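[Meeting: bench + compute handoff]

Bench side (C.D.) handed over the final construct sequence. Compute side (W.E.) agreed to return the predicted structure before the next meeting so the bench team could plan truncations. Sequence as handed over:
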Amino acid sequence: MAEHSVSDGRSGAAAATPTSVQDVPVHAVVDEQAFYARAQANASWAASRMFVAIGATVYGALVFSYFYLRSLDSNGLWHQPSQHPPILLSVVMLGLGVTSSLLFVWATRRLRAGRRGVLDWGVASAITTGVLALTVGLSIWQLSRLPFAPGDSGYASVFVGTEVVTIGMLLIELYQIETVLARSIRLRGVLSPGGDAADSSEVMAFRLAVDAASLFAGFMAIVLVGVFVLFYWVS
């Protein structure tokens, strides 16, 4: 009788131990997926806020350099009359950069409000990606055709430095939007309202990543307008 009890106890212990993947509780896998989805969402928000903070700091330093060097202009050498960037090309780049950024912000708000599906958002994001790539190309081409060198004056040095920083920030914006656009293509089967996992943690993480990219896009729209006003109007 005792041996029978011991064998039952052992068999019960063996039965309680998972012996295959099917024996693992389903909620454990779901919790792990939710954990990684939340980690991705937190990383996206942290990266966007970090880039906004870095951008604000760098542009603040450039604005300080602009007015500091301008205040030291005792010989009239701050900005020579011949040192003017191509105004028409600059206006075109301003329009392309600001329009594409605001288009993405607008499409993201409509997606969040549920007014349109992910297809419309994807089209707007693809257009934004192409226009931003064109803006970066034009900015690089403009730097190669400037009628002055960075060391010719204080204005020239600050202008070239600001353009280089702006190109880098536009590339960051382009990368963020391209990344969320690629994720939307991978999740296209579940992002629609009728999808099997429309409310899953992975989809929620995607939406937070889109909001994070929209935050940085709005920041860049403000920056582009501020840079244009500083170098083409205030100067």
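W.E. noted at the follow-up: The chain has a mean pLDDT of 80. C.D. will use this when planning the next construct.
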